[in-house]
Design goal:
Blueprint (H helix, E strand, L loop, with lengths): L1 H24 L1 H6 L6 H24 L5 H21 L7 H20 L2
Helix pairs in contact: 1-3, 1-5, 3-4, 4-5
């Protein structure tokens, strides 16, 4: 079971890398007001959602204790991220505030995952 959990964690990290990487590649364009939500951001967020749910299920099946408040907060942030990315995915230019919100929430999600014990 540990191998499966570690494989899903690896996929979860790939998802966050895709979301954050897509954001970082558009930061220069954001300064010019020309940023857009790239497909990598949507795919990364969806990957995070699927693998996150799988991780909670796998850890519960293994008998580990789950911090439901932490997971709920991370899920809420991810739903906001997914909503913004999904709604703005076809726009040529995304407002800097919406784009920056995606980056800030993504970063917050990373810090919650790593620092909240």
């Amino acid at each position: 079971m540990d191998v499966l959990i570690h494989a899903v964690i690896a996929l979860h990290i790939i998802g966050i890398a895709s979301l954050l990487g897509g954001f970082l590649t558009q930061m220069k364009a954001m300064g010019k007001g020309e940023a857009r939500m790239v497909p990598a951001m949507l795919h990364g967020a969806l990957t995070m959602l699927v693998t996150g749910v799988a991780l909670v299920g796998l850890n519960q099946a293994e008998g580990s204790t789950i911090n439901n408040f932490k997971i709920g907060l991370k899920l809420a942030l991810l739903i906001v991220i997914l909503g913004l990315v999904y709604v703005k995915r076809d726009e040529e230019k995304v407002e800097a505030a919406a784009f920056g919100t995606v980056g800030a929430l993504t970063t917050a999600n990373i810090f919650i995952a790593l620092l909240w014990v």
